[in-house]
């Protein structure tokens, strides 16, 4: 098997673990011992690959056939299939995966568009020219607002449209500090609308979030995201003010 196809096969192996039937899983788990360091390292490698590729949408693969291929490769045996057969089969699996992923992406995009269209009808929700939607939860009469070049300290909770939380500084109990130019466009724009001490809820279209390139399986591609954000501080403005005072005192 060519090395270019080997990487694909390893990925398919991990994903196949998701689709295997319960009987296969039970047999593997009870018959495989993890007593030695080598066995534990082997298990750890398989677990890591499986976790990384869990979200790949490939169905119908056989755990037994994958195990047979691995056994043959480790034993130095010749492939039971021709290179042409291997290439054709792997390409078929990849094409099926792409079709399924595209369908999921399209469905997520449509769901987000429909949600935003309805959400925009609420009196409490405002929509910017970019399509970003926001709702003021706690307002302040005065206070500093960040610029795109500033760093900010915030508490936030990020959710999908179904309400599931994918990230939360509130749950961790530790505020997050970052530069606005380093985050998704919806955050860069939205945080500049806020004053220190305010809480907003942002409804961020996929094109102002991660689009089709999600950084984590917890956020499906083309997801519209909901963030509740509290602006706690603007550290960069304090730093700049301190430098100005120091220069004036010299």
From TrEMBL:
<dbReference type="Pfam" id="PF01346">
    <property type="entry name" value="FKBP_N"/>
</dbReference>
<comment type="similarity">
    <text>Belongs to the FKBP-type PPIase family.</text>
</comment>
<keyword id="KW-0413">Isomerase</keyword>
<feature type="domain" description="PPIase FKBP-type">
    <location>
        <begin position="149"/>
        <end position="235"/>
    </location>
</feature>
<dbReference type="GO" id="GO:0003755">
    <property type="term" value="F:peptidyl-prolyl cis-trans isomerase activity"/>
</dbReference>
<dbReference type="InterPro" id="IPR001179">
    <property type="entry name" value="PPIase_FKBP_dom"/>
</dbReference>
<keyword id="KW-0697">Rotamase</keyword>
<dbReference type="InterPro" id="IPR046357">
    <property type="entry name" value="PPIase_dom_sf"/>
</dbReference>
<dbReference type="GO" id="GO:0006457">
    <property type="term" value="P:protein folding"/>
</dbReference>
<keyword id="KW-0732">Signal</keyword>
<protein>
    <recommendedName>
        <fullName>Peptidyl-prolyl cis-trans isomerase</fullName>
        <ecNumber>5.2.1.8</ecNumber>
    </recommendedName>
</protein>
<dbReference type="InterPro" id="IPR000774">
    <property type="entry name" value="PPIase_FKBP_N"/>
</dbReference>
<dbReference type="InterPro" id="IPR036944">
    <property type="entry name" value="PPIase_FKBP_N_sf"/>
</dbReference>
<dbReference type="Pfam" id="PF00254">
    <property type="entry name" value="FKBP_C"/>
</dbReference>
């Amino acid at each position: 098997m060519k090395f270019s196809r080997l990487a694909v096969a390893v990925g398919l192996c991990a994903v196949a673990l998701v689709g295997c039937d319960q009987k296969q899983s039970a047999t593997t788990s009870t018959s495989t011992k993890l007593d030695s360091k080598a066995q534990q390292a082997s298990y750890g490698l398989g677990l890591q690959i499986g976790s990384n590729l869990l979200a790949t949408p490939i169905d119908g693969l056989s755990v037994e056939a994958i195990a047979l291929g691995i056994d043959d490769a480790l034993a130095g045996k010749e492939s039971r299939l021709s290179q042409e057969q291997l290439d054709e089969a792997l390409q078929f699996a990849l094409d099926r995966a792409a079709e399924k992923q595209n369908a999921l992406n399209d469905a997520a995009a449509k769901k987000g568009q429909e949600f935003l269209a309805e959400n925009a009808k609420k009196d409490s929700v405002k929509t910017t020219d970019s399509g970003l939607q926001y709702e003021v939860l706690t307002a302040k009469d005065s206070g500093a607002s960040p610029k795109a070049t500033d760093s900010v300290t915030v508490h936030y909770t990020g959710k999908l449209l179904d309400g599931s939380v994918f990230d939360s500084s509130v749950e961790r109990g530790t505020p997050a500090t970052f530069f606005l130019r380093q985050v998704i466009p919806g955050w860069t724009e939205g945080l500049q609308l806020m004053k220190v001490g305010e809480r907003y809820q942002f409804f961020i279209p996929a094109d102002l979030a991660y689009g089709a390139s999600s950084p984590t399986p917890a956020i499906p591609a083309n997801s519209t995201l909901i963030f509740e954000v509290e602006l706690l501080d603007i550290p960069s403005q304090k730093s700049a003010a301190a430098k100005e005072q120091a220069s004036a005192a010299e």
